[in-house]
Write a structure and sequence with these properties.
heterodimer; A: about 120 residues; mainly alpha; 3 domains; 5 helices; about 0% strand; B: about 300 residues; three-stranded antiparallel β-sheet; about 65% helix; about 5% strand; globular
Amino acid sequence: MTAFEVAIAPLWPYLVLIMVGFLPSEVWRALGVVVSRGLDERSEIIVWVRAVATTLLAAVVMKLLLTPTGALAAAPILARFGAVVAGVGVYFLARRSVIAGVIAGELILISVTYFALA
Amino acid sequence: MRVCIRTGQPAHAPKPRILPAPFWQNRAAHAHSGGAQLRQLRNSHGVARRFVINKSMNETGANDSQPERTGTNGSGSSTHRSPVLRGIRDALVLPAWIVGFSLLGVGSLAQDVGFPFGVAVLSTLLMWAAPAQVILFGGVAGGTALPLLAVAVSLSSIRLLPMTVAMMPMLRRPGQSLLTQLFVAHYVAVTVWIESNRRMPTMPEEERFRYYLGFANACLLVATTMTGIGFLLSAAVPLYLAAGLLFLTPLFFTIALIAGARTLIDQAALFIGAVLAPLFTLLVGPDFDLLATGLVGGTLAWLIGRRRR
């Protein structure tokens, strides 16, 4: 390694963060600013865009549950889906309490994963 | 329009208007719907109460399943308080902590994979997209080639485009520079988006921007701090707990989306998105499935909503 390479080595992870993490995701926000210019919040296009965004969010959730990365992959797939279904059920049973649904889903996922790994 | 029984004056003296409660506080909304109702509101000290008549909520144009409770604790005073503070308070009630704990999982993952502390913390400040951060750190750990990883991160963040487009018209003010707009757009993330979408349309235009900055900054700062804490605690976090922390993202997204889905379009979009996503993963592969699901499913949901109107 040259002296230059040694000098920049500690900066490498930061460069990865900027080039591989920050810019590839931020580009969509920047594009959103440009594309939305001159659009009225009540226009039909915005209604459609909102529907696309909501659909995408549901799709992201499905992907996170079906093919998770990181430690979540260690949780059995049935636990992942079961815990989400239970969390939504508790949310409604607890008269639409988001916190109750989240706690119930978490408890189920963590305990099932604990016993599955044991 | 709310009227105080005792005085006959509008309950919110300066500007009577309807503020939907944030989605995690809308329990009352579905128990009572429509018609004149008696309800109690606490004053700023949360002790003394007064009765308020609450009639014909639909005159604001909000649909009838919209939460009807004004503000939150101390709603009598909330109209006097700065929108920034209201945003911060609404964030700290719950959503900032949920995002915070899910990013605690991300911080812990960054440490496991061998990234320095600064990168973990900066990843939240700069990327502000938990799924993309997990893909970044997980991908580096798995040895994915960096250009491919950049594409994977980017494709996972496509949702930010329609979210930003739907959000900006509510936040734009005359004379705002492009740089300011880019700065404002940087805060766009699922939690901020769902909550702002529900709250801001009924908010006076001049308050939206400040409310949004208060809410979003509170979420971002809590989440950044928690990422750092997660990094430092990483060794102490057993695998089943780490799984639980990362599970917060899909779990909270699901419940918050369902809680926030008030129109037929929203509900159709959620259902169609969940069903189409795995189908499109099989049809077009794991790279462009999100994009395809969003465009096809979103258009379907929009058409369904249009036929109803």
